[in-house]
Write a structure and sequence with these properties.
heterodimer, A: 171 residues, alpha+beta, Alpha-Beta Plaits, 3-stranded antiparallel sheet, B: 899 residues, alpha/beta, Ubiquitin-like (UB roll), Rossmann fold, 6-stranded mixed sheet, 6-stranded parallel sheet, globular, binds iron/sulfur cluster, binds FE2/S2 (inorganic) cluster
C-alpha cells in the first residue's frame, strides 16, 4: 500500500521535471560528435579518398555488410573500385571505424536514413564518400606508409631515411 | 627414438632432427623466419630462440637457436622460459624498427608470417623513434611485385631462388643493415619458379603481381583443392575465387607430388580462366536462332538421335567428361583426338609403367635417386617441377657423404652447401639442344632424337653385357648407383626414345638393380586418356562423313597438321564443340557449347605416374552454361535415350558407372572423399571463417541475400559455414590454423614436418602390377634419317611460357612468351647464307612459312629447332623434314607469308 502511494507520488513529481521528449521531426535532436550513425568515407588533407581498400572494416563487420574491391591507380595508390554498405544489415556497432587504419570510414551523428524500400538502403561509394576529413583532420596515411603511391617518394615520408644505395658497402 | 623434455614434460621424438621442427611437429607454436621445411636451417634470423639445459639440475640453461640444435638422446629445453620469451620479443622489436607502416596496403596482410610471428611473440608497441631505413624497388617482370622496405633480412628468398631452384639473377647486395634483395638491375626474373618467392618470403617484399590486379585478402577467398592443368605432372594447387572470378593459385602441399612448390606456369596460368578467349555463350554458326539453353540442348539431342554420332575426347578434359562422351556416342564411335604418333607415344608410356620392370617414380620421389639419365626431355620447359626435383636429387650423394664424413645433419643448410660446393651426383642429359639443367649435369650431349634413342640402346647393351667391365660412362654410373633413374617423355615425338628407356631399365633390372622410371607427357590427363584405351583420330575417318561429330575440349589443329584437321572438319554434317576456351576448332564448329574450366568444374585427372587426382569446383559461376562437360553430356545422353533427366547427378554417380565400364580406373572414387562425407555432421567450408561482405556483395542486385549454392559433388560447402578444424587431406581447401594465417600453417596439417598430410597425401595410383598387360611392339628404328640438300630435321623446343595451350592465354604468361624462331647452328646458317634474325623461308607440305633465324650453336647440323605450340608455329605438329630456302645474296625472302 505504502509503495503504491510512493510510486504515485514520484510519478506526480515528474510533472515538474525538465522534459526529455522533443517534438521530432519539427524539433531536431542534438547529437554528440561521436554518436554512431550513418557511415561515411572521408578524404585526407589533400582531398584524396582516404580509403586504401585494405578490407579491414569488411573483416571487422560482425554482420558482413561491407563489400568492396581494391584497385590501384597508375601511381600505385590503392583505393576502392567499389565500396558498398548494406545499411539494412548494419547494426551501427562502429567496429569498422575502429578497424580502419586510415580514419577513412567514420560513423557520424546522423540517423535519418529511413526508406520505404529496403533496396534503397544499399549505399555505394558515391553515396558514402563525403568532401571532408570528418572527425580526424590532418591524417594522411600515404605520408606515413613506406609505399610510394604518388604521395611522397621513397625516403621522403615522415621519419624516413633517404633510400639505401645498394651499390655501396660503406657503413 | 629419443626423449625430449619440453618445460619438464617428456616427449618421444626422432633423434637427429632439429629442435625447431621437432617442436612444431609436436604442435608447439614456436616463431621462426629463416628456417624452411624444404630448405633447412641457417640460423640467420635469431627468432627461434629457446632455452636448453645440460641436465635436470641445470636451472640457468643457455639460449640457443632451436633450428640449429639437433635433438639428442635426452634433451631438456624450455620454450616458455622468460629469457627465451624476452629474447624472441626483442628480436621482433628490432626487426620492426625499420618495418614500414604498410599492412593496410600490403598484399601479404592477412596471410603474413611476420604479422603472425609479431602477434605470437607479443610485441605490440613501437618504442624506436628514429627514422626508418628505406629502399627503392625494382621492376621484376609481370609475375612478381617487389616492395623492398618490408624486408626483414631472413635470406629465405635467395636461398630458395639461388640455392634451391638454381636461379642466377636474384641476389643480396650492399652490406650491414643495408642489405638489399633483388636483381643486379631492373628486369624480368629468369627462374621458372620465381612465383614461389611470394610464398617463401615471410613478408610482403615479393608478392603475386597478377593477384594485385584483382586483389583480395586471404580471408575473403572461396578456395578449393585443385590440380594444376598445365602439364602432365599434376601438381596440387589451391585455387581461390572472389566475386565470381578466379584470382589466385597457390601451391597445395602434397608430399608425394609437388611438395611445397609449384612452377610459374602453374601459378600464373590461371588467368586463362578470365581471358577474353573464354567461350561464355553458345554460338550457332548459321541460323541466328535463339540461344535459349533448353532450345540448344534439345536441338543437339535431336541431332544426336537422328544421325550417327562420333566423339573425339581430350587429354586435357577430365576422365569423367571423356567417359560421358564415350557413353553418349557409344563405345565404337569414340576416338582420342590424338594423331597416330601421339597415340602410340602415350600408349608406350603407359605400357612401360604397366610392365613394372622399373619402379614408377612419383615427382617427389625423384629426389631419392642418385644417378639420373634424362633421355630427350627438356624438363624445365615441359615438366617444370620435375626440373626442380632433379636439382635436389643431384645433391643426394654429396649430402650423404657429408653425413658420413663429418656427421652433418641434412637440415644444416649453410654448412652443407659450404661443404658440398659444386659437387653433385651423376646426371646425364641427352638432348637435341642445351637445357637449363645442363649446368648440373655430369655429361651432356646434343644429337638428333634418333641418335639419342640409338645411344640409349647402346647404354642398355653396355649394361646388359655380361662382360665384367662396362666401358660406357653412363652405363657404369647407372650400374653403380644405389637407385638409378631414367627420365624420358613424349615431347620429342620419338617412340624409339621410349623403347630405349624401356631397354635400359630392363637391362638394369637384369643386373639386379631397382631402376626407377619417370615419363612426362603433354597434357594434364594424357595418362588418363591413354588408359581409356581408345583408338586415335585416324581410325575415325570412315565414320565421319555425314555424321554428327562432337569434339570435347580439344583443338584438333594443335594435334594434327592443318590439312589433316581440315579434312576431318569437312567430313561431318554437323560439328559440335564443347570447350571453355576458343580454338581454331571451336571457331569452325557448327555449334559451340561453353563449359566450365577446372575452377568451375569437378573432375578427376591422371598424372604422368598414373596417379588419379581429383580437382574440385571452386565456385558456382553466374553463367549457367559453365558446368562440367560431363554434366552436359550426361544430360544429352538422357535426352537422346528418352530417359528421365537426373537433376542431382553427382560426380560419384558417374564415377561408379565409369569404373564399372572401365575397370582399369577402379580406385578413382578414393581419390577424394565422397559427397556424403561429413565431419561432426558438417560439411567442410570452402571459405575461411572471417569471409567478409556476405550480406553486401550481391546487395546491389537484390538486397535479399540469395540462398547459397549447394554442392552435390563434394563434402565441401561453398560458404564459410561448416566444420572448423583440420579437414581430411583430399578436401582441404586452404591451410589455416589459429595464430597461423600465412601458408606456414601447413605445419599443422602434416603428421610430421615435411612428411605426409594428416590422413595421407591425396591421390590414388591407378597403374599397378597388372598381369594381363600385353607388351606393345615399340617402334625401334634408330637409323639416321637421310636428308637431302637443304633439308633439316625439325625438332621442337618448348618454352614454359607459351608452349602449353591454356596458360598461354593468361596475359602475364603471354607477355613472357618468346617470339617464334627457327634455331640453326653456324654450319646451317652459313650453308643457307643467312644471318641471325634474318627471315628464313621454310617449305613444308607445299606451303611456305617464314620465321626469324636464331643461332643455336650447340645443335647438330641436321637439326632445325622450332618453338612449339605458338600460333605462328602451329603448322608444326610432329618432327618433320623441312626444306629451308637459301637466301640468295641481297634478295630477301618474302615471296610468301606465314599464317
Ligand atoms: S578499413 Fe578503412 S581503409 Fe580499410 S577498406 Fe575499410 S574504409 Fe578503407
Ligand atoms: S609484410 Fe606483413 S607486417 Fe609487413 S606490412 Fe606487409 S602485412 Fe604488414
Ligand atoms: S625479401 Fe623476404 S625472403 Fe628475402 S630476406 Fe627479405 S623478408 Fe626474407
Ligand atoms: S610442373 Fe606442371 S603440373 Fe606442376 S605447376 Fe608446373 S605446369 Fe603445373
Ligand atoms: S628460424 Fe632459427 S634462426 Fe631463423
Amino acid at each position: 500500500m505504502l509503495s503504491i502511494i510512493r510510486s504515485i507520488w514520484l510519478t506526480f513529481l515528474h510533472l515538474f521535471h525538465k522534459t526529455e521528449t522533443i517534438q521530432y521531426p519539427e524539433e531536431k535532436v542534438q547529437l554528440r560528435p561521436r554518436y554512431r550513425g550513418r557511415i561515411v568515407l572521408t578524404r585526407d588533407p589533400d582531398n584524396q579518398e582516404r580509403c586504401v581498400g585494405c578490407y579491414l572494416c569488411a573483416a571487422a563487420c560482425p554482420v558482413d555488410c561491407i563489400a568492396l574491391q581494391a584497385t590501384e591507380n597508375e601511381e600505385g595508390r590503392r583505393y576502392p573500385e567499389f565500396f558498398r554498405i548494406n545499411f539494412s544489415r548494419c547494426i551501427f556497432c562502429g567496429f569498422c571505424e575502429e578497424a580502419c587504419p586510415t580514419y577513412a570510414i567514420q560513423l557520424i551523428p546522423d540517423f535519418e536514413m529511413a526508406e520505404y524500400d529496403r533496396q534503397n538502403l544499399v549505399y555505394e561509394k558515391e553515396d558514402l564518400l563525403i568532401n571532408s576529413q570528418g572527425k580526424y583532420p590532418g591524417y594522411n596515411y600515404y605520408k606515413v606508409a613506406g609505399l610510394d603511391a604518388g604521395v611522397k617518394g621513397k625516403g621522403e615520408g615522415t621519419n624516413e631515411e633517404p633510400p639505401v644505395d645498394r651499390h655501396s658497402l660503406l657503413p | 627414438m629419443a626423449t625430449l623434455y619440453i618445460d619438464n614434460r617428456p616427449y618421444d621424438v626422432k633423434e637427429g632432427k632439429n629442435l625447431l621442427e621437432t617442436c612444431l611437429t609436436l604442435g608447439f607454436d614456436l616463431p621462426y623466419f629463416c628456417w624452411h621445411p624444404a630448405m633447412g636451417s641457417v640460423g640467420a634470423c635469431r627468432q627461434c630462440a629457446i632455452k636448453i639445459f645440460k641436465d635436470e639440475n641445470d636451472t640457468a640453461g643457455r639460449l640457443v637457436m632451436s633450428c640449429m640444435e639437433p635433438v639428442g638422446k635426452e634433451t631438456r629445453i624450455s620454450l616458455d622460459h622468460p629469457d627465451a620469451e624476452k629474447f624472441r620479443k626483442s628480436v621482433i622489436e628490432w626487426l620492426m624498427t625499420n618495418h614500414p607502416h604498410d599492412c593496410a596496403v600490403c598484399d601479404e596482410g592477412g596471410s603474413c608470417h611476420l604479422q603472425d610471428m609479431t602477434v605470437m611473440t607479443g610485441h605490440n608497441y613501437r618504442r624506436f623513434e628514429f627514422p626508418k631505413r628505406t629502399y627503392v624497388n625494382q621492376y621484376l617482370g609481370p609475375l612478381i611485385n617487389h616492395e623492398m622496405n618490408r624486408c626483414i633480412q631472413c635470406y629465405r628468398c635467395v636461398r630458395f631462388y639461388k640455392d634451391y631452384a638454381g636461379g642466377k639473377d636474384l641476389d643480396v647486395y650492399a652490406a650491414h643493415n643495408h642489405v638489399y634483395f633483388g636483381r643486379e638491375k631492373d628486369g624480368i626474373l629468369e627462374s621458372e619458379f620465381s612465383g614461389n618467392l611470394a610464398e617463401i618470403c615471410p613478408t610482403g617484399v615479393f608478392t603475386d603481381k597478377t593477384l594485385k590486379q584483382h586483389y583480395s585478402r586471404k580471408w575473403d577467398f572461396t578456395f578449393a583443392p585443385s590440380v594444376c592443368q598445365h602439364c602432365s605432372l599434376g601438381c596440387n594447387i589451391i585455387a581461390g575465387e572472389r566475386y565470381g572470378e578466379l584470382r589466385q593459385i597457390t601451391s597445395r602441399y602434397n608430399g608425394d607430388v609437388n611438395g611445397y612448390f609449384i612452377c610459374d606456369r602453374g601459378r600464373f596460368g590461371y588467368e586463362a580462366a578470365n581471358s577474353v578467349d573464354r567461350i561464355y555463350q553458345p554460338a550457332l554458326k548459321e541460323e541466328n536462332v535463339s540461344l535459349n539453353q533448353e532450345y540448344i540442348i534439345n536441338d543437339i539431342a535431336a541431332l544426336l538421335s537422328t544421325s550417327n554420332c562420333v566423339g573425339i575426347g581430350s587429354p586435357r578434359a577430365s576422365l569423367e567428361s571423356n567417359f560421358a562422351l564415350q557413353q553418349l556416342v557409344g563405345n565404337g564411335n569414340y576416338y582420342s583426338g590424338w594423331s597416330d604418333e601421339e597415340h602410340r607415344l602415350n600408349k608406350a608410356a603407359l605400357n612401360i609403367l604397366q610392365n613394372r620392370t622399373a619402379e614408377i617414380v612419383s615427382l617427389k620421389q625423384i629426389e631419392q635417386y642418385d644417378s639420373i639419365l634424362i633421355l630427350g626431355e627438356d624438363l624445365t620447359n615441359t615438366a617444370p617441377m620435375a626440373a626442380l626435383t632433379v636439382r635436389q636429387a643431384v645433391r643426394k650423394k654429396p649430402v650423404e657423404n657429408a653425413q658420413q664424413n663429418i656427421n652433418l645433419a641434412t637440415w644444416h643448410d649453410a654448412a652443407l652447401r659450404e661443404y658440398i660446393q659444386q659437387r653433385h651426383s651423376d646426371l646425364f642429359i641427352l638432348h637435341p639442344h642445351s637445357t637449363k639443367l645442363d649446368e648440373i649435369a655430369t655429361q651432356v650431349s646434343y644429337s638428333t632424337p634418333h641418335e639419342i634413342a640409338a645411344k640409349g640402346f647402346t647404354i642398355a647393351a653396355a649394361i646388359d653385357a655380361t662382360a665384367d667391365q662396362v666401358i660406357d660412362q653412363i652405363a657404369t654410373s647407372l650400374l653403380n648407383a644405389q637407385k638409378p633413374l631414367i627420365i624420358t617423355g613424349t615431347s620429342l615425338f620419338n617412340e624409339p626414345l621410349l623403347a630405349a628407356a624401356e631397354a635400359i631399365v630392363k637391362a638394369l633390372k637384369k643386373r639386379g638393380k631397382q631402376p626407377g622410371i619417370f615419363i612426362t607427357q603433354a597434357d594434364c590427363n594424357s595418362m588418363g586418356l591413354a588408359m581409356m584405351n581408345v583408338p586415335p583420330l585416324s581410325s575415325a575417318f570412315s565414320k565421319l562423313s555425314d555424321s554428327t561429330l562432337i569434339i570435347l575440349e580439344t583443338d584438333l589443329y594443335r594435334n594434327l597438321s592443318t590439312e589433316k584437321a581440315d579434312e576431318i572438319m569437312n567430313l561431318p554434317k554437323r560439328i559440335i564443340v564443347f570447350d571453355h576456351i576458343k580454338s581454331t576448332t571451336s571457331e569452325k564448329a557448327d555449334i559451340k557449347v561453353p563449359v566450365g574450366m577446372f575452377s568451375e568444374a569437378d573432375g578427376t585427372i591422371v598424372n604422368n605416374e598414373g596417379r588419379a587426382q581429383r580437382f574440385f569446383q571452386v565456385f558456382v559461376p553466374k553463367n549457367e552454361w559453365l558446368k562440367e562437360s560431363w554434366r552436359w553430356l550426361s544430360l544429352l545422353k538422357a535426352l537422346k535415350d528418352g530417359k528421365a533427366i537426373d537433376e542431382n547427378l553427382s560426380i560419384s554417380n558417374i564415377q561408379s558407372t565409369l569404373v564399372e565400364a572401365l575397370p582399369q580406373f577402379r580406385g578413382i572414387e578414393d581419390a577424394a572423399l565422397s559427397e556424403d562425407f561429413r565431419l561432426n555432421g558438417q560439411k567442410v567450408p570452402r571459405a575461411p571463417h572471417r569471409y567478409s561482405g556476405r550480406t553486401a556483395m550481391l546487395s546491389n542486385e537484390n538486397v535479399s541475400e540469395p540462398k547459397p549454392p549447394q554442392d552435390i559433388d563434394s563434402p565441401m560447402s561453398f560458404t564459410m559455414e561448416g566444420y572448423r578444424g583440420i579437414p581430411p587431406s583430399s578436401v582441404t581447401p586452404f591451410f589455416w590454423s589459429p595464430g597461423w594465417n600465412s601458408v606456414q600453417s601447413i605445419n599443422k596439417f602434416q603428421i610430421e614436418i615435411g612428411g605426409p598430410l594428416h590422413d595421407g597425401n591425396p591421390g590414388v595410383r591407378l597403374v599397378n602390377s597388372n598381369s594381363s598387360i600385353t607388351p606393345i611392339d615399340f617402334e625401334q628404328k634408330t637409323e639416321k634419317i637421310s636428308l637431302k640438300e637443304f633439308e633439316w630435321q625439325l625438332v621442337p623446343v618448348y618454352h614454359i611460357f607459351g608452349s602449353e595451350e591454356l596458360s598461354a592465354k593468361a596475359p602475364a604468361i603471354a607477355e613472357l612468351t618468346p617470339k617464334p624462331y627457327l634455331g640453326l647452328n653456324q654450319y646451317s646458317l652459313a650453308k643457307l647464307n643467312l644471318q641471325e634474325n634474318d627471315m628464313a623461308t621454310i617449305e613444308h607440305h607445299g606451303r611456305a612459312y617464314q620465321l626469324p633465324v636464331r643461332l643455336r650453336a650447340e645443335i647438330n647440323n641436321e637439326v632445325a629447332l622450332i618453338l612449339f605450340g605458338l600460333p605462328q608455329t602451329a603448322f608444326f605438329v610432329k618432327p618433320v623434314i623441312i626444306k629451308i630456302r637459301p637466301a640468295s645474296n641481297g634478295i630477301t625472302n618474302n615471296n610468301s607469308k606465314h599464317e
